[in-house]
Design a protein that fits this description.
Elements (H helix, E strand, L loop, with lengths): L21 H10 L2 H11 L3 H8 L9 H23 L21
Length: 108
């Protein structure tokens, strides 16, 4: 069963990145390889604007499940952007054992 809208079927293979919380997205980033993140980034980044335009057709407080999954996928794209574009590694460089935990998630 597809998680994403039909217009984004090309991204369905990355549906394991449709994660609802920042903690889940961060954990996925830490357990993913750079080639995996690069593949996701290369496929999803060109579709980011299309996803934003598509998502804007729906009220934020009443997103259909497939659109909500698309939003979560794009939030994961943001999560991998710095590792792919800048750090070239999943973890924040020189951060040691530092950890920050969100106590409240953004609404989506």
């Amino acid at each position: 069963m597809p998680k994403l809208p039909a217009e984004f079927a090309d991204l369905e293979k990355f549906s394991d990145w449709c994660l609802a919380t920042e903690a889940e997205r961060y954990a996925k980033r830490l357990t993913s390889t750079m080639p995996e993140m690069q593949e996701f980034y290369d496929a999803a980044m060109p579709r980011l604007e299309d996803a934003c335009v598509y998502g804007d057709k729906f009220p934020l407080d009443d997103l259909p499940p497939d659109v909500r999954s698309l939003v979560h996928l794009m939030q994961s794209l943001v999560m991998v952007s710095f590792p792919v574009e800048v750090w070239k590694q999943p973890r924040v460089p020189d951060s040691g054992a530092a950890w920050a935990e969100l106590i409240r998630e953004p609404v989506v």
